[in-house]
């Protein structure tokens, strides 16, 4: 039986329980990294059945990050919350989350990647992705250090960053900013989880996605004539004041997330 995760009338916060306690630790690390960059960060939490997804927009990267997880029991939930309050509500020992109250979400929270239509463009070895991220970080550092002090303005640094991180990952149309974000968020660890396989670059309309065993990074390509526009995931409120929507369905395999051949036992469900 699926339940709606809503807040009680007495103000108590609803709780979500991960199927494995490691899921709570992964979420805590995911949020903590982003709060170091932006203490006011927000997160959109969606759950459909036993699959949970936490969407964020990491500061500086201009991408969306998605952390998937598996719950102990089916839940239906869609709410935008403070990332800081969400982190405070994580009980790593019990593998549970106390969901904070809803906040007025930033604009990105209402415009998420599409649920389906994803096509695999390329497979990328974790080591190759990490090396690509390290190379552009090193180039940025070297070129900024080579600038005269008076030329090292915010505008100049932003322009340099845009030039470097807008380049595609070799052999794919994916901008390197997505790879850099995946590396910074811990989605490309030196030793991937057993059975993780390679990362995958996927496309759906104007969206590109780097999917790893630990999470995904999605980025919108610049508008191109002939391509469809934004794919808006509607924000619908339930009677309890929460947004409701289901987690994305991955039509690449014809299965829902976390089910079928696209999900490895012991790994979080893939977006």
Topology of helices and strands:
Elements: E1 3-4, E2 15-17, H1 22-37, E3 42-56, E4 64-82, H2 83-88, E5 90-91, E6 96-98, E7 119-124, H3 126-145, H4 154-165, H5 176-184, E8 199-204, E9 207-211, E10 216-220
Parallel strand pairs: 1-4
Antiparallel strand pairs: 2-6, 3-4, 4-10, 5-6, 7-8, 8-9, 9-10
Helix pairs in contact: 3-4, 3-5
Structure description:
With 271 residues, the protein is an alpha+beta fold. Helix content is 23%, strand content 24%. It is built from five helices and ten strands. The protein has helices at 22-37, 83-88, 126-145, 154-165, 176-184; strands spanning 3-4, 15-17, 42-56, 64-82, 90-91, 96-98, 119-124, 199-204, 207-211, 216-220. Strands 1, 3, 4, 7, 8, 9 and 10 form a seven-stranded mixed sheet that branches. Helix 3 (126-145) packs antiparallel against helix 4 (154-165). The chain is globular. The chain starts with a strand and ends in a 51-residue tail after the last strand. The model is unreliable at 7-12 and 225-270 (pLDDT under 50).
Alpha plus pi helix count: 5
Contiguous uncertain segments of 5+ residues: 7-12, 225-270
Question: Structural class, from helix and strand content?
Answer: alpha+beta
Strand content: 15-25%
The beta-strand count equals 10
Shape: globular
Mean pLDDT over the full residue set: 81
How do the SSEs run, as a string of H and E? EEHEEHEEEHHHEEE
């Amino acid at each position: 039986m699926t339940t709606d995760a809503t807040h009680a009338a007495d103000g108590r916060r609803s709780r979500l329980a991960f199927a494995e306690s490691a899921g709570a630790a992964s979420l805590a690390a995911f949020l903590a990294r982003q709060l170091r960059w932006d203490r006011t960060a927000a997160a959109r939490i969606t759950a459909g059945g036993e699959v949970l997804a936490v969407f964020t927009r990491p500061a500086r990267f201009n991408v969306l990050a998605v952390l998937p997880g598996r719950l102990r029991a089916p839940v239906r939930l869609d709410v935008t919350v403070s990332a800081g309050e969400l982190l405070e509500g994580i009980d790593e020992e019990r593998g549970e989350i106390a969901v904070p109250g809803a906040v007025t979400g930033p604009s990105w929270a209402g415009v998420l990647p599409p649920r389906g239509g994803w096509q695999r463009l390329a497979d990328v070895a974790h080591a190759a992705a990490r090396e690509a991220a390290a190379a552009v970080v090193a180039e940025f550092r070297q070129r900024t250090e080579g600038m005269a002090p008076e030329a090292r303005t915010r505008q100049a640094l932003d322009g340099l960053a845009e030039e470097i991180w807008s380049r595609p990952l070799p052999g794919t149309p994916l901008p390197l900013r997505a790879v850099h974000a995946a590396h910074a968020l811990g989605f490309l660890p030196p030793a991937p989880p057993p059975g993780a396989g390679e990362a995958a670059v996927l496309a759906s309309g104007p969206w590109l996605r780097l999917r790893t065993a630990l999470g995904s990074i999605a980025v919108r390509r610049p508008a191109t004539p002939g391509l469809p526009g934004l794919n808006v995931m509607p924000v619908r409120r339930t009677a309890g004041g929460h947004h409701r929507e289901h987690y994305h369905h991955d039509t690449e395999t014809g299965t829902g997330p976390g089910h079928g051949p696209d999900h490895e036992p012991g790994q979080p469900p893939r977006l």
